[in-house]
Amino acid sequence: MAERKAIFITGGASGIGRATARLFAARGWLVGLADVNEAGLAETAALLPAGAAEQYVMDVRDRDAWERSLAAFTIVSGGRLDVLHNNAGIGTGGPFASASFAEIDRTVEINFVGVLNGARIGYAYLAKTPGSCLLNTASASAIYGSSGLATYSATKFAVRALTEALDGEWFGAGIKVRSLIPSFIETPLLDTVPEGSNRTIRDRVTGAGLELTDVEEVAKAAWRAVHGRAVHTYVGKTAHRLRFAARWFPYALRRRSRR
């Protein structure tokens, strides 16, 4: 019988992380769930088949927690780490000029430094597992900078660049590096109220006439990304439209973003 494959997912308490965990577990994988939300982790684990999940309460900014969690998970998995899904992130927005430095720092630390931590610490485990993959969750905001989401966009551009760089750098080690580039997804992040605003991100998205993509579609895209050859996997109509417009109509995008 084939050895069970293993995936470690940050942000596993809800949204994309939860949906991805459910899909991989349903296909026979062992799932490591990591998040700061202990109750949410338990809820996700309860949705998975018996014996399919291990839970780790951790903050992706904490390197010691990364070390402890991956060491513990790979003991359970028999040393395997087939996929490390750097998925944890927060949604922030509002005028950049009035954003607090605390908010800017927190967004950068969670959305990008957390991904750096996972990649750097996870490398040793991925390198020992043939055919392994580092999967990073970026965003359609990594296609063209989004007015009103400056810091968020910057972190997702950074995730995209890191993905491309490491896919080349780690080729010799047999590690694929991939990114998910979803448009606006139906997750709790959309209910965030940016500092200095009285409107949620959901209100801004729907008010702009943009569609929301089901989180299950992102999970299916994660499976394709891990098993496919494309470095970036775009998910949702908005992501595909932005990709096209950024290439062929960049001036139109600039005009649309001006306020």
TrEMBL record:
GO terms for molecular function: oxidoreductase activity. The lineage of its organism: Bacteria, Pseudomonadati, Pseudomonadota, Alphaproteobacteria, Sphingomonadales. It holds the Pfam family adh_short. Keywords: Oxidoreductase. Belongs to the short-chain dehydrogenases/reductases (SDR) family. It comes from Sphingomonas aerophila. Coiled coil: none annotated. Gene3D superfamilies: NAD(P)-binding Rossmann-like Domain. InterPro entries: NAD(P)-bd_dom_sf, SDR_fam. This is NAD(P)-dependent dehydrogenase (Short-subunit alcohol dehydrogenase family).
